[in-house]
Write a structure and sequence with these properties.
By secondary structure, this protein is an alpha+beta fold. The chain is built from 3 helices and 4 strands. It has one domain.
Length: 102
């Protein structure tokens, strides 16, 4: 499993955690608390004005469809998160998958 390098907090309220494998995950603070993440031991970067959570609607607690709704509460009916904790999102593969499905 990837190790946490540092984290930052966005003006939208989300926390973004960056890992040593290049992955980053954004989430609501309540999600971090549910996961039992104690970030006090990691370097905190300056606050940001935007993040994947508020701009792209990507996160470990946001629906895979990209609506920005929480997993399990989205009207699309999906029950899967966009991101997996500690795993780098492969945007090229996602693009190609979408391109070939058209």
């Amino acid at each position: 499993m990837a190790s946490i390098k540092y984290y930052s907090k966005c003006n939208c309220g989300a926390i973004t955690i960056n890992f040593d494998n290049g992955a980053s995950n954004s989430m609501y603070p309540k999600t971090a608390k549910k996961l039992g993440l104690d970030l006090r031991h990691y370097k905190r970067y300056n606050p940001t004005y935007y993040c994947d959570h508020c701009v792209n609607h990507w996160g470990i607690d946001l629906c895979e469809c990209g609506s920005g709704e929480e997993v399990g509460k989205c009207s699309c009916g999906l029950n899967k998160a966009h991101d997996e904790f500690g795993v780098k999102f492969d945007s090229l593969a996602a693009f190609m998958k979408g391109f070939y499905m058209v």
